[in-house]
Design a protein that fits this description.
The chain is mainly β. The chain has a domain of about 70 residues. The protein is built from no helices and nine strands. Strand 3 and strand 4 form a beta hairpin. The radius of gyration is 14 Å and the shape is globular. About 20% of the residues are buried.
């Protein structure tokens, strides 16, 4: 994490599980990590959703997406996090958006 006041980077709690191709956005001060894929196992996608709380330096597991996915963007509209289906399997570039449960 970069601290603006000191212009320095510091290491924070690791994201569970470590992955790439995930969507990331901020809602109400929490950093959400959505989906992604395992870089050690080809084609293994995640449906997981975690929220990072900067004040406690802790990740919390949230309700998962309905299906595993990776290489997609996420967006926030009126405080709600959305993720479109994207690159996993044959579903590349679909225009539907899915609301992620904020529980």
């Amino acid at each position: 994490m970069r601290t603006l006041a000191t212009n320095a980077w510091t290491t924070k709690a690791p994201m569970p599980p470590a992955r790439s191709g995930l969507g990331v956005s901020v809602v109400n001060g929490l950093l959400y990590a959505v989906g992604g894929h395992n870089t050690s196992v080809v084609g293994q996608a995640f449906a997981t959703v975690e929220a990072y709380e900067p004040t406690t330096n802790a990740w919390t597991t949230k309700a998962p997406m309905p299906a595993a996915d990776y290489w997609f963007g996420v967006g926030v509209v009126n405080g709600v996090l959305y993720a479109p289906w994207a690159a996993s399997g044959a579903q590349a570039c679909c225009r539907r958006w899915k609301r992620i449960n904020r529980s």
